[in-house]
Amino acid sequence: MKRITLGKWVTVSIVYMFLGTSVNVGAIEIMNQTDVLNNLVNPHVFKEPIIKNGDFSSGLDYWIVSNPGSNNPKLITEDGERYVKSTDGESIHQILKLKPNTQYIFSYEVAASAIYPGKVELGTLNYGELFHPLKEVFHNNEYGWEKYVFTFSTHQIEDTYAIRFASTGFGWATFKNIDAQKNTLLSVGVKDQQPLVYLNLSKEQFYSKERFIVYVDGQYWFETYSGHAYYAAKKSEEEDRIRVYKAFDGKQGSKIEVYTASGIPGDFVTDPKLLETYIVEKDLV
Fold first, then answer.
1. Which of 12, 100, 134, 159 is surrounded by the fewest CB atoms within 10 Å?
2. How far is CA 152 from CA 65, 99, 198, 272, in A?
3. How far apart are CA 60 and CA 31, in angstroms?
4. CATH value at residue 75
5. pLDDT single digits (tens) 141-196
């Protein structure tokens, strides 16, 4: 994917809502402001969301607009709900603080013009570097809102990320209810006195041609691939999630791991990539 210079990402406004003040800084100074922000927020007071003000309930606070003097993008309120409308290639973006080697689930609602689609980009914006998009999604559903969900895995090293919502060409795009959550793949539970290990996947992950392989204490347990669960059961689908589960002994100290790997079920695993590890803290039954 090509590297681009986002010329309009030069001046940003970081709004400290809890102080009631606004500070304007150059884009290259964002890193220096991060330490100040961290020192001002008590981590025990609240859990800071990944996407700040994703419902636009506080206007455009925390969002950086591409053309702030033109009212484009602009905030619109309809039926008590707020959304942003962008036209003629303008955009909003937000700097994200994501953990290395971690998977996240991003979601938003969108409507956009058909000929010139709306565009969503997620990528790195490190100190002294150009914006490097790693994920691009285009939308041309001009007749109504659609919810879109995608997963994104961060690099193994620490990076600064940004997500951008834009119109293209002479078109328009609207966005609302933007959210991001850390994707916790593994969990455990008990049903009818039987301990269970759960693999929690997005629909995109479950139906993808990517193997998700679960091991318990170093032994192969089950896997998913292309919409199928192998040696495990699939729980009924929730809104954007699918849970696959299988019984295990549920003893304290049990180590559960989930990997991705190339190939298809039945192939020998030659290049596994560890995604997550879960240690059972106490006997489940």
1. 100
2. 23, 12, 20, 18
3. 21
4. 2.60.120.260
5. 999 999 998 888 898 899 999 999 999 999 999 999 999 988 889 999 999 999 99
276, part of any domain: yes
- Backbone dihedral angles phi then psi of residue 36, each to the nearest 5 degrees: -65, -45
Q: Is residue 216 part of a domain?
A: yes
The low-confidence residues of the chain, meaning pLDDT below 50, are 1-46
Count of alpha carbons within 13 Å of 29, Cβ hemisphere only? 12
Pairing of strands 211-216, 194-202: unpaired
Domain membership flag for residue 9 = no
Q: Are 174 and 112 in contact (CB under 8 A)?
A: yes
188 alpha-carbon distance from chain centroid:
23
Residue 164 neighbours by CB distance under 10 Å: 21
Same domain? For 130 and 80 the reply is: yes
pLDDT of residue 193: 94
Same domain, 169 and 217: no
Q: 230: which 2 tokens?
A: 């192998």
The CATH number linked to 243 is 2.60.40
pTM, to two decimals: 0.65
Query: Phi/psi class of residue 191: alpha, beta or left (left: φ > 0; alpha: ψ in -120 to 50)?
Result: beta
Residue with tokens 């090509």: 2
Q: Which of 102, 120, 240 is nearest to 182 (CA)?
A: 102
Residues 156, 191 within the same domain: no
Nearest to residue 84, comparing CAs of 54, 107, 113?
A: 54
